[in-house]
């Protein structure tokens, strides 16, 4: 379903712009951060004693997911 939409956007006059790239990366980062947070809460719920270790790994995972959105931001505006 998404492939025909992308093909139509690529064939349009402006093509796929940095705004689309940034939007997709932002959506992906948001989903990734949400999944990391959900699984961290689940892990602490199962084993409260591991809170410190889980929190450290969750923060690192969220930072890595957010870095993808920052790379997309740089890529989106570098192409203009």
Strand and helix map with partners:
Layout: H1 2-11, H2 18-46, H3 51-78
Helix pairs in contact: 2-3
What does this structure look like?
The protein has 80 residues and is mainly α. It has a single domain, classed as F1FO ATP Synthase. Helices cover 84% and strands 0% of the residues. The chain contains three helices and no strands. It is elongated and about 55 Å long. The chain starts with a helix and ends with a helix. The mean pLDDT is 84.
Give the gist of this structure.
The protein has 3 helices and no strands.
Q: What would CATH call the class?
A: Mainly Alpha
| CA gyration radius, whole angstroms | 17 Å
Average pLDDT, to the nearest integer? Answer: 84
Q: Main β-sheet: number of strands, strand sense, barrel status? A: none
Structural class, by secondary structure, is mainly alpha
Query: And the CATH topology?
Result: F1FO ATP Synthase
Beta-strand content estimate: under 5%
The domain tally reads 1
Low-confidence stretches: none
Principal-axis shape: elongated
List descriptors.
80 residues, 3 helices, F1FO ATP Synthase
